[in-house]
Amino acid sequence: MDFVKTLIIKFNNELAKWDITKFRGAVVASIHDADILFHNHEGESLRYGYPLIQYKTIGGKAAIVAVGEGADKLYQAFPKSDWNLNIGGNKTQMSLESAKIYETPLMLNEGEFPYHIEQWLPLNEKNYSQYKSLESVVEQMQMLERTLISNILSLLRSSGIIIDEQLTCTITSMPNIQATRFKQVKLLSFDLDFKCNLQLPIYIGLGKHASVGHGIITDKE
């Protein structure tokens, strides 16, 4: 059976969502010769693909979630920093709350697992136009479900995992849609509940800008 490994590091320090990118910059600066997985940049070029090290808030506090190879890199780098960070000009001594490794089994289930996803950014400029052109809410929901599936498959590919059976996602409610901006680009942000026939690691991000707090997955009670 295949597994997705995640390393979840939680700090006691509060962190506002709009400071997540500053937190990422501070972490990268604190680690000598930080691997590309920490920042997804190499010179002027970008590393494309699913982000294997993600920065976010969990319960209003700073956290780092790493997946697969990213979990190994973060585990190796963690002891090399004193975690006295400069977050946007503010010196902050990070206080560790917990550091845990999880292995989530990847097996398609005849039933469905319920999840909540928050601040999910599924649409780029091209498919936003396509989304708005659809004539019915049903068609829009189907497009979002296909995008969710694509996002999950991207996660699996990052761990070298290919599934042969059909992956399914069904949106069950959409409590919040709002316009937002990321680096001056207009985007639609979705909070919604869905069911999936695959168990997913909690606190991972899906969709655009998952590396900095968007598209966080949690269990839905």
Concise account of the structure shown:
This protein is α+β, with helices and mostly antiparallel strands and 221 residues long. The protein has four helices and twelve strands; from the N terminus they run E-H-E-E-E-E-H-E-E-E-E-H-H-E-E-E. It has a four-stranded antiparallel sheet. A four-stranded antiparallel sheet has the order 10-11-9-12.
How many DSSP helices?
Answer: 4
Class computed from helices, strands and strand pairing: alpha+beta
Strand order of the largest sheet: 4-5-1-8
Instruction: Tally the structural domains.
Output: 2
Rg: 18 Å
Low-confidence parts lasting 5 or more residues at pLDDT below 50?
Answer: none
CATH architecture of the largest domain: 2-Layer Sandwich
Major β-sheet, in short? Answer: 4 strands, antiparallel
How would you characterize this protein structure?
The chain has 221 residues and is of the alpha+beta class. The protein folds into two domains: 102 residues, Alpha-Beta Plaits (2-Layer Sandwich); 113 residues, Alpha-Beta Plaits, CATH 3.30.70. The protein is built from four helices and twelve strands. The protein has a four-stranded antiparallel β-sheet. The protein has a four-stranded antiparallel β-sheet with strand order 10-11-9-12. The longest helix has 22 residues.
Layout: helices, strands, pairs:
Blueprint: E1 2-14, H1 20-30, E2 41-42, E3 45-46, E4 53-58, E5 61-67, H2 69-77, E6 84-87, E7 90-93, E8 96-106, E9 108-120, H3 125-133, H4 137-158, E10 169-182, E11 185-198, E12 216-219
Antiparallel strand pairs: 1-5, 1-8, 2-3, 4-5, 6-7, 9-11, 9-12, 10-11
